[in-house]
User: Fold these one by one.
Assistant:
Number 1:
Amino acid sequence: MNKTFKINNQNIQISTFAKTGTTFMESLCGEYSDISRDTYTNPDKHYISVRYPLDRFISGFCTLYYRSHQNNKTPEYQDLYTRISKMSLHDAFYECYYSQKNNWDFDGHTIKSYSFIPEDHTNITFINFRDIGILLSQLGYNPININDVYFNDNPNKDKQYIHNIIHSDKDLYNDIQNYLGQDLGIYQKLPIFNFNA
């Protein structure tokens, strides 16, 4: 898992991957002292927040791009981040694609992640990342001051732009699908619970 959070008084664990509610959960930890992060336990109930892999990848690339000017990346790839920070979204995407030979594992936002999901789904409920707020509300957690700190949303126009780039280039599309193949295979088999809000 990318990040795990424990609701201490209920022995409930919530796990997220990059772009599936991590920023929201980290902000909630700052507001509620009975929610702790990076706690791995044997919970009574374990919720895992997931998102369709291609959508997660596209949003992840946008975050990677917007943060490329920050000097907090893996030193091995700092030159790449520096290069793309000076490029358009389009050029940055292709620079990463070509320079890394379609291996996007260099950044936590685009790395394949679903292989970390336990094979034993006992006590695990998979939820759509958009339902994490509904789940927390049902557990009695309603953030007092929801603001921008709670969200790491990328502009829809930029996500749609990357989506269009991928879908308009057959070879690129096939390569990205290949890269995401393992995550796509795992995701398609998950029993994802739908909340009725």
Number 2:
Amino acid sequence: MGETMDKAAALPPIAGLRKVLICGPVAEAGKPARGGFESANLRMMTLARRLAAEADPLRYPEVEGGALVKAVAYLGSFCAIALAILFGDARGAAIHFTPLSKHFMPWECALILLARLKGYRVVFDIRAGSQRRLYLAGSFINRATFRWGLRLAHVVAYEGRPYDAFLEEVVPGKPRFWLPNMIPASELKARAGFDAEGPRLVYVGLVSEAKGAVAAVKLARQLRERLPGTVLAFIGRRDPGATPLLEQAGGDAPWIEYAGALPPAEVYARLDRAHYFIFLSLWRGEGHSNALTEAMARGCVPVVTRHGFSADVVDSCGFIVDDRDSIDGAVDWIAANWNASDWTASSRATVARIADNFTDRQALRNLHAIYQAAFA
């Protein structure tokens, strides 16, 4: 952490920047985040406090219930945010929008327009892996408001490298910067040695079919035929709809654990004992998974689907599944990798991959460049 703070101190002040407001889903410090979007925005707000005198959230609501309940909650939240923008002090202030897009986009675009009219500097930050698909499949209004929001922004940020070309098509010439999800560099932890008990597989996140929970059970069962010591742990709340599918796949075996949602310290303790992180997601909103970054940072070798930005994050430091219905290749790869020399080399490579690309060291420099461009 000391090295990270030194790098922060070495960055020159941004002329004119006094305050940053993060607008979108933002987790509350010290409380469990509902998802990766919220936790990523909380980390970004923490980084922004190193660059500006103030950094605060314009927080979207956390709400459970039906469509009507959610509609009322979001309408009230957007009105409150609009009033905060309207009566706020825009001098030296940037609003860093992280829109939900989809059917929210017209309302979010109205907030961006209000911010511009009030005199705020605006960052439009795409924090999802589904935006291009949603844009191409969306209505004329959604496409038009998305383009308008991007054009209104002083600068655009994007979570995954593949979006660079997409943004050049939609808003050519607009200043844009890669801003991937990240972890604090202090959370990096290379393994001291090889623990031959296992292999221990781990899954972190919402336990659902779309996120790959059922596929993880199938992979683990096949691998157990080759390596009888294989065990699998699920960490995260379970989607009720996934329970019958998990049972059908054999997910009620005694060597499979469902730990539920755990505090961050306990999640890291579990990751430190695991060998492979299994993330076979086909969820339509998948982008850059926080859980993937965290697991790799603790030395868990990743096995992921080529979906969202996972393949770009993993690169050559694990195994990438092209077809989730055919996991024989992944099973063969893990079985071959499961020895002291190969697993240790793979584990250290995953930590190095995160250290070189996805910590607050790199994110702080990227964020500095973004706000500098916004105030240019």
Number 3:
Amino acid sequence: MEKSWLIGIAITIFLIINFLYYKSLNGYVKKEFGEKMWKTWTSKMYFWQSALYTSAAITVLIIFLLKWARILTF
């Protein structure tokens, strides 16, 4: 039971961070690369790859900060 809560919290944090990353940088990347370049799959792939890596790293950091603060126990 305890592990399912931890996994649920981690997935929720990951999705929230990924959404915020997308909302904050999507317009900037489209403007910087241009609409024509943004429509190619390589530009989108690099954007989503960086979104996943960033979200995963921040999620791990938040989970361990919550563990350090003794809010979560695992």
Number 4:
Amino acid sequence: MWRLLPVFLLVSCAVSDQQQPANGESEPTQGRIVRQMALPVESSAQAIRGQASKKTFQRQGVQGWLDETGAWHMEADVHHSRLLCGMYETGIQLGKGKAACSDETEWLTGVQYATRLRHCNSASRLHVGGGRFPDAANRLGEVTCVRVLVRCEGSC
């Protein structure tokens, strides 16, 4: 019986990987927020002719951009510190506030989640995804902050 336990744990955690972009309207289930950070955004060094202007954000294993059409993209390293599996999602929210993006930030959008990945056995995984904030189109000038959120369900 005990010899089968490691095999069972590996099989239960090896269920098919899921990377399902979630639009802001149909979010699968509500997990708990395990990490969040507010990051300042910076204008891109140079806009390329014929392309939407962009703002970027970056810090501690997180980087991304957003543009004047409301589109966004993000890459985030997410670490799982348990043996049993948990399902992690990463997302962002746009806001305006002071340069430090402190508690006084006014959040202009809801949170949009873009990735959904299973983590097992103390694994770190790179979450890569994006989406579009339709209400934020042509409001790029107002956005000074991005809140990056990681939520988890299961063994977190």
